[in-house]
Design brief:
The chain is mostly beta strands. It has no helices and 18 strands.
Length: 164
């Protein structure tokens, strides 16, 4: 019998009698050559892909081991498309898109990643900015979601530091 050409996204190895579906982290774009090509470092592909794509910030990729790739969870990202996930810096989150690590939105300057929540509102009695929080000093208060504490009105001490 005459040889049959494999068509994308299938390929065959030299001397093989069957076409194979293109695997993860390989691309199979050529109908003329009928072979697969490994994705370059910091690129990935899904099974059956005709091309490879750059790893997004929240995905770890390791083309040396084609089955090693995955998405980082909420509050984690890959720095420069590394092979592992890192906790997002304080004040940043990836919960909105999972594609980028972004500064927490206004009104929620405090970041809490220990339980995977991402950005949360600054608690009452605290001033929060750039991912850190500090308790209001005596004589000052904050109702929450504030970057600074306000002075208590004249004649009051604001004992709970949350309200006047």
């Amino acid at each position: 019998t005459d040889p049959t050409m494999c068509t994308s996204p299938y390929y065959s190895n030299y001397g093989a009698s069957v076409c194979i579906y293109c695997e993860r982290n390989y691309m199979c774009p050529d109908v003329y050559y009928s072979h697969r090509r490994a994705c370059s470092n910091l690129y990935f592909s899904n099974p059956g892909s005709l091309t490879c794509f750059p790893c997004p910030e929240t995905m770890w990729c390791n083309p040396v081991s084609p089955s090693s790739q995955g998405f980082c969870g909420t509050g984690f990202y890959t720095q420069n498309n590394n092979f592992y996930c890192n906790p997002a810096p304080a004040g940043y989150t990836n919960a909105a898109s999972y594609l980028t690590v972004q500064l927490c939105p206004a009104g929620s300057p405090y970041s809490n990643f220990k339980d995977g929540i991402g950005c949360t509102n600054c608690p009452a009695g605290f001033a929060c900015s750039a991912g850190s929080n500090s308790m209001c000093s005596l004589g000052y208060y904050s109702p929450g979601s504030q970057s600074t504490c306000s002075a208590c009105p004249s004649g009051s001490i604001c004992p709970d530091r949350k309200s006047t």
